[in-house]
Amino acid sequence: MSLQGKTALVTGGSRGIGRAVCLRLADMGCTVGVNYVANPSAARETVQSIENQGGKGFILQFDVADSDAVQEAIKAMAAEHGNPEILVNNAGITRDGLMARMKEQDWDAVLDTNLKGTFLCSKAVTRGMMKKRWGRIINISSVIGFLGNGGQVNYSAAKAGMIGLTKSMARELASRQVTVNSVAPGYIVTDMTSTLSEEIQEMIKAQVPLGSLGKPEDVAACVAFLASEESSYLTGQTLHVNGGMYMGN
Ligand code: NDP
Predict the structure, then answer these.
(1) Which of 35, 46, 183, 190 to mutate to test the pocket of ligand 1 (most atoms within 8 A of CB)?
(2) Reading across the β-sheet that carries 178-185, which strands appear in turn?
């Protein structure tokens, strides 16, 4: 599955799942733009790891929810490295709380980063992909978008929204051979899940037929397939990477 000569942009590539995706795409020969918002040292570590394994990467700081910043950053990237042929919309946050007590700002922040950010970044790269008549957009949704979860009305709405967005974008871009798919991870060991207590982690494991939480690399492997030539007849789909905890579609 070679991506030699191609350029990718991974939002939230500085840590967790995004970092594993960056390393995997770089390993396939891609030059990878590592986006972050607030954590430059983590982004530098990702680029360093890419270089240590013989790949090419560069850093792009911007907030995916800021329309002007997204456009400027992708314009600058296109001028220096070429328009990305692969976009992984991975940047995401949680602001959990029961709906009755959830602050409007926490609803807005999660919808803006997870869902609007996906729209803004996709919009900014699609013209270049359509011109080339080749492109891959991969949206990182979540099992919570399918199951729902008490305390996460904002997050589950955003992640379910990404599935509708994926399907509509897939229909709009298919005639130009640009595919759009989602990956819906279950519980993966990253900073995002590190705050879960031991007890909660045990409860989650009990619901996972494969018996463990996932690794960022498990998600990256699916992204790698969707980014590759081998997935060219797949669009509008969701790959569930959750150890079997949810098997629907
Ligand atoms: P982490 O919290 O470990 O990392 C989040 C990443 O997103 C960081 O690189 C962070 O950058 C970046 N980021 C956050 N907000 C913005 C923003 N506004 N603009 C640009 N970048 C931003 O998360 P995970 O690796 O766990 O999650 C990655 C994705 O996978 C998310 O979309 C998440 O919802 C999804 N997911 C995760 C699961 C899990 O169990 N971990 C399960 C299902 C889905 P910085 O370093 O600068 O803060």
Answers:
(1) 190
(2) 56-61, 31-36, 7-10, 86-89, 135-140, 178-185, 238-241
Please write the tens of the pLDDT for every residue from 48-98. 999 999 999 999 999 999 999 999 999 999 999 999 999 999 999 999 999
The answer to whether the CB of 140 is under 6 A from ligand 1 is yes
The domains located in the chain, with CATH, are: 7-238 (3.40.50.720)
- Ligand 1 pocket member 194 (CB < 6 A): no
Whether residue 181 has its Cβ less than 6 Å from ligand 1: no
Tens of pLDDT, residue by residue over 140-180, are 999 999 999 999 999 999 999 999 999 999 999 999 999 99
- Which pTM value belongs to this model? 0.98
Enter the DSSP assignment of 211: -
First to last CA, the chain: 26
